Amino acid sequence: MATWNPWHGCRKVSSGCLNCYVYRRDAEFGKDSSIIARTSSFALPVKRNRKGIYKLQPDEGAVYTCMTSDFFVEEADEWRPEAWKMIRERDDLHFVIITKRIHRFQVGLPKDWGEGYDNVTICCTCENQNMADYRLPIFLNLPIRHRTIIHEPMLEWIEIRRYLATGLIEQVTCGGESGPEARICDYAWILEIMQQCVEYDIPFWFKQTGAKFKKGNRIYHIERKDQMHQAEKAGVNYRYERNN
Q: Which is one Pfam family of this protein (predicted)?
């Protein structure tokens, strides 16, 4: 897995953003996360070493893009066309873009996008039912080749069967919230989404428990370093193969 953050900073748009890890980390250094700016890594996909070889190579796995911002944030509209150009140039890499702004997907979209670049997966984040019912109909009507849904942080029970039934979703990921102010993630919610994925034979990944994990009538406080491991130990992943 590789990470490319062409710009940094974001503005909170929904309840899933309340305890944003970017804001939490920036606060430790007295940095204002609401200020969006290009980073020194902006051109990372096309940077080459002294031998003229790209620094980012396919064997590093998928390139997770804009993990300290949102690729479709308004302030990045002027930079996004150049970012798309680099993504198009590096068709040997697979870029994963996670967004809460799927309604802005077509702003600055390349003219040659067509039905989507094959080397791009767009992941639509839906933390609750309200956001699922707002974002997913938009998501499913966009020209995108590879789509996944992410419920992280998962804040309540969510029903997505009608969206899975379209056959357009390639994977669903669930996870709890981290940090000292984390909200509860209920294991029953995770199992419900897993069951929905099983019904439609769609890969499911339980990524992490979050810091406050409810199972049955008990709430467990789980350290950050153990959250992904504990999720894996649950053994509820379905057809999921980690390949990045």
A: DUF5131
- Of 159, 146, 100, which is closest to residue 126 (Cα–Cα)? 100
pLDDT tens figures, 122-152: 999 999 999 999 999 999 999 999 999 999 9
Is the distance from CB of 184 to CB of 212 less than 8 angstroms? Answer: yes
Taking the CA atoms of residue 31, residue 18, residue 193 and residue 63 in that order, the dihedral angle to the nearest 10 degrees is -20
Q: Which residues contact 218 (CB under 8 A, 6 or more apart)?
A: none
Give the gyration radius of the chain's Cα atoms.
Answer: 18
- In angstroms, rounded to a whole number, what is the distance separating the alpha carbons of residues 229 and 225? 8
Count up the domains in the chain and report the number: 1
Percent of the chain with pLDDT over 70: 99
Q: What are phi and psi of 58, to 5 degrees?
A: -55, -30
Structure tokens at 89: 């140039």
For the stretch 163-222, pLDDT in tens is 999 999 999 999 999 999 999 999 999 999 999 999 999 999 999 999 999 999 999 999
Would you say residue 139 lies in a domain? yes
Asked if the bond preceding 153 is cis, omega within 30° of 0, the reply is yes
Residues 19-62 have pLDDT tens digits of 999 999 999 999 999 999 999 999 999 999 999 999 999 999 99
Q: Is residue 15 part of a domain?
A: yes
- Region class of 30: left (phi > 0), else alpha (psi between -120 and 50), else beta: left
Task: Give the pLDDT score at 243.
Answer: 54
Range of the domain at 183: 2-233
- Within-domain flag for 161: yes
Structure tokens at 169: 């979703």
Domain presence at residue 77: yes
